[in-house]
Design brief:
About 25% of the residues lie in helices and about 20% in strands. By secondary structure, it is α/β, with parallel strands linked by helices. It has a single domain, classed as Rossmann fold, CATH 3.40.50.10420. The strands form three sheets. It has a seven-stranded mixed beta sheet. The two termini are about 25 Å apart. About 30% of the residues are buried.
């Protein structure tokens, strides 16, 4: 099996090539609606964490309008330190964003952090066992552990699916994954 860092490098290049070859209209239409199964899953949730995508990550911010239309409060992550510390700050669509570490953007750091009911996380890769390959800093793994009752949803382009993503004991699997062509739910026995 490929080690995680090598897989990250492959995944970045694969995603970049896919997005570069994607029809512009298909790109503009991707992730503009929330699929019905996800709408049902988040029905009782009040606060949903999105993130500001970097480079060719899936354009998750397109979900902001439909989430707001259903009365959800939105928040965005803020990286606190290089040790994997991250919290979530409230955000409204017209709020300015401030630069953070690693090229991230976040709301005004003066706002009090909130506890999300749903965490929509970026992915470099995923598999059907709901394992997530992230950037390697452990920020989302720690956030998932800090908010164990929050629904864990990954968002990615379909090309980011792999046969198997290596998982460590501390990795918390996702409960759902949204791509531009499919909504994948955790299979419960």
């Amino acid at each position: 099996m490929t080690d995680k860092q090598a897989l990250r490098d492959i995944a970045r290049q694969r995603r970049q090539n896919f997005v570069a070859s994607l029809d512009p209209l298909a790109h503009r239409l991707a992730f503009k609606a929330i699929p019905s199964p996800l709408t049902r899953m988040i029905g009782d949730a009040q606060t949903v964490a999105l993130y500001v995508p970097m480079d060719d990550e899936a354009p998750v911010m397109r979900l902001a309008a439909p989430l707001l239309a259903t009365g959800k409060l939105l928040c965005l992550p803020r990286v606190i330190d290089r040790l994997g510390g991250m919290d979530f700050l409230p955000w409204e669509r017209d709020d300015p964003l401030h630069p953070g570490p690693f090229g991230t953007s976040h709301p005004d750091p003066g706002d009090c952090p909130v506890a999300p009911d749903v965490i929509i996380a970026p992915l470099l890769g995923f598999d059907r066992r709901m394992n997530r390959l992230g950037w390697g800093g452990g920020y989302y793994d720690r956030a998932f552990a800090r908010y164990p009752d929050a629904l864990r949803v990954g968002i990615a382009w379909s090309v980011q699916e792999y046969e198997e993503i290596p998982a460590e004991v501390w990795d918390m699997p996702l409960q759902a994954i949204l791509t531009e062509v499919e909504f994948i739910e955790e299979v419960t026995a």
